[in-house]
Amino acid sequence: MQKNNKTHFLTRGYQLLIAGFVWLVLSTSAWANGDQLLGVWLSPEDKATIEIYQQDGKYFGRIVALKEPLYPADDEGGQAGQPKVDRNNPDKSLRDRPVIGLNLLRGFSYKGESKGIHEWHKGKIYDPGNGKDYKCTIKLNADGTLNLRGYIGISLIGRTQVWRPKP
Hints:
Elements: H1 2-34, E1 39-42, E2 48-55, E3 58-66, E4 103-114, E5 117-127, E6 132-140, E7 146-151, E8 158-165
Antiparallel strand pairs: 1-2, 1-8, 2-3, 3-4, 4-5, 5-6, 6-7, 7-8
């Protein structure tokens, strides 16, 4: 009878060890999948090149290049030929900061994967065109493109952009 108790204890110990190992593998796998977002992406019509990076466990994206980095000759703001700045920012003290280098995406967390689509949420996207922040979700599609959905309030009311990886 003592042998059975020992065998049961050892079996239970191995079960716990295996369960812990499986949990570790699955959690490591999920963490690694979250990093699929990292890299350089192109916005629609290649207007901006955005580098997505990770900092303190969250995902961020900054503009590293613009298709048209200078204001056009007919610029209504009187800045023709000058590098584009964040002039629509509601905070007047930030209106002189360059658009190149601007953090466009902030604070995203990896939510997980379902049916081959990876999702990040709880982040914000900044639109330098109007100076507004929007709640945002990001989905990595099976074809390698990103769907970024910016919204106010609920995600049903919003706009989606498709970004593609920079070749």
